[in-house]
Design a protein that fits this description.
The chain is α+β, with helices and mostly antiparallel strands. The chain has two domains: 125 residues; 144 residues, Rieske [2Fe-2S] iron-sulphur domain (Rieske Iron-sulfur Protein). A hairpin with a 4-residue loop joins β7 and β8. The chain is elongated.
């Protein structure tokens, strides 16, 4: 028996199969129209985004079976942005699969840096392949792609409007004042200290006068988190400790970095975490910042109880809620 192992033969490449669009002009025309439709759908998505941002009211909600109460503007903005980017990608894939040149090329391995002559040839090749891709002769695709790309660039420019102007005095006042009851959100019912166990967290809003409509803007800056600890767990000065009630402490829910909702509570460490940029606040030390980019603690709301035992605000916030910015220093909020 021979110990010599027979070498495998190079099987080569399988026979190339041409696409329908390569051999049938009608199939090529249909593929071109499909790509154009996808690019047009992208343009429609961008228009939906812009129209939703400008026309749809920010405080309009409707109910969806799975999502519950949903902000109409935010839903349409999400759908529009998704469609504008998704259909550009799908159109590009369809174009590449069905219409761009379908040639098999073997590239030999070479040194990392090619000769200058080869590099110049590569540039020329890119130019030639770009022409071969059909932009010059497929005017329908060229026009619809230009429309889709041109419009999709408007969305981020439009949304940049939400980065300014500075809030100035907007966060200086809220609906909290002395004697205002704390209402569970979204139930809208008053809450007693006995309703919260040690380790429990609840989001509350201020009770508004009869006939007053709660707006989306006020809901955002009025939101407060209640957290119940054991009284001995606190490390507070006498004034801040007097703002608590039977181990219950209240903080603004708006992160002092960029205004995200602080909603993650670690019961073992007594830390509040902002999910946007990981700013971390120590509840036992009046929400002092212990990690992350936030520049100041979460504002604490002084609380007590009324004659019926319901939790109420003892006074308004003593510092503005919301994010810090260059016109607002950390000492005054």
């Amino acid at each position: 028996m021979s110990n010599q192992v027979e070498r495998f033969q190079d099987p080569g490449l399988p026979e190339h199969v041409h696409r329908n669009a390569d051999v049938d002009p009608k199939a090529a025309k249909r593929a071109e129209q499909q790509v154009a439709i996808l690019f047009l759908l992208s343009a429609v998505g961008t228009v939906l985004t812009i129209v939703s941002y400008i026309i749809v009211p920010k405080d309009k909600f409707f109910y969806l079976p799975i999502m519950g109460s949903t902000n109409v503007q935010q839903l349409l903005l999400g759908l529009g942005l998704t469609a504008s980017t998704l259909f550009i990608g799908l159109g590009a894939i369809q174009w590449a699969k069905k219409l761009m040149p379908d040639q098999e090329v073997i590239a030999e391995r070479h040194e990392f840096r090619s000769e200058e002559v080869d590099r110049a040839e590569l540039v020329e090749t890119f130019k030639e392949r770009g022409a071969a891709a059909g932009l010059g002769r497929r005017s329908l695709i060229k026009r619809t792609l230009g429309l889709a790309l041109g419009l999709v660039g408007l969305s981020p420019l439009l949304l940049l409007r939400d980065t300014g102007p500075q809030p100035k005095k907007y966060f200086d006042t809220t609906d909290w004042s002395a004697g205002i009851r704390l209402l569970l959100d979204p139930a809208g019912t008053p809450i007693k200290a006995s309703d919260l166990e040690v380790g429990a967290v609840a989001q509350v809003l201020p009770e508004l006068p009869a006939g007053t409509e709660r707006t989306l803007e006020n809901t955002g800056k009025d939101a407060v988190l209640l957290i119940r600890l054991r009284p001995e767990d606190f490390n507070l000065d006498a004034e801040r400790l007097s703002w608590t009630h039977e181990g219950i402490i209240a903080f603004s829910k708006i992160c002092t970095h960029m205004g995200c909702a602080v909603a993650l509570y670690e019961q073992q460490t007594h830390h509040l975490l902002c999910p946007c940029h990981q700013s971390t606040f120590d509840v036992t030390r009046a929400a002092k910042v212990i990690f992350g980019p936030a520049a100041r603690p979460l504002p604490q709301l002084a609380i007590t109880v009324d004659s019926n035992g319901y939790l109420i605000a003892k006074q308004p916030f003593t510092v503005p809620v919301g994010p810090s910015f260059w016109e607002r220093n950390s000492s005054n909020g």
